[in-house]
Design a protein that fits this description.
Layout (H helix, E strand, L loop, with lengths): L1 H11 L3 E2 L4 E4 L8 H9 L6 E2 L1 H4 L7 H11 L2 E8 L3 E8 L2 H16 L9 H11 L8 H6 L1 H14 L3 H14 L7
């Protein structure tokens, strides 16, 4: 999801081409965000290639740099603990949970209050990506059922801006879920 978000931002900034359901990097100045810049440099310059290669195959490289950025900005805190008294783990805590709740409400409001945005807003992108990954913290199963047609309209709008990305993200999610899901940092 982190890489999909970065690619959505690149599309919005006109730094990638998604013609024909494939992706390639467009010339321009790299974004200011270091993670998004790294994703941009991963994309091919010449011949477009399928999205999945840049989402699924590199998903394991996303968590650490994003977590480090959030830590440096003071948005999260990390404490080292031992699970079962033996296995060391990092417990990540959001410093301002009220900001997370406000963001969640803005994302959900895109469906509750508004028709799909005319442009690719952060809230539209987050709403659609959260549905594709079945993030219950944003959209419960009941919500996804109740607002199915509204969510579908948002997905269609998202696909108009970034064709192929949503399907590739879903394919990546389903592939990793089938084998126990995810990667470790």
């Amino acid at each position: 999801m982190l890489r999909a978000g970065a690619m959505t931002e690149l599309a919005r900034e006109g730094l990638l081409d998604a013609t024909g359901g494939k992706v390639r990097r467009l010339p321009g100045n790299p974004p200011e965000d270091p993670f998004t810049t790294a994703v941009w440099y991963d994309l091919p310059e010449d011949r477009p290639k399928g999205w999945l290669k840049f989402l699924h195959d590199k998903a394991h490289t996303a968590e650490t740099p994003v977590r480090d950025q959030l830590l440096a900005s003071g948005d999260v805190a990390i404490t080292r603990e031992k699970k079962l008294g033996v296995v060391p783990i990092d417990r990540v805590t959001v410093v301002r949970p009220d900001l997370v709740r406000a963001l969640q409400e803005r994302v959900r409001a895109t469906v509750f209050d508004d028709p799909p945005a005319e442009d690719l807003t952060d809230e539209l992108a987050m709403s659609v990506l959260a549905v594709e990954l079945e993030l219950a913290s944003v959209w419960s199963k009941e919500d996804r059922h109740t607002y199915k047609s509204d969510l579908k309209a948002h997905a269609v709008r998202f696909d108009a801006f970034v064709p192929g990305l949503r399907k590739a993200l879903r394919d990546s999610y389903l592939a990793s879920r089938a084998v126990g899901g995810g990667w470790s940092a």
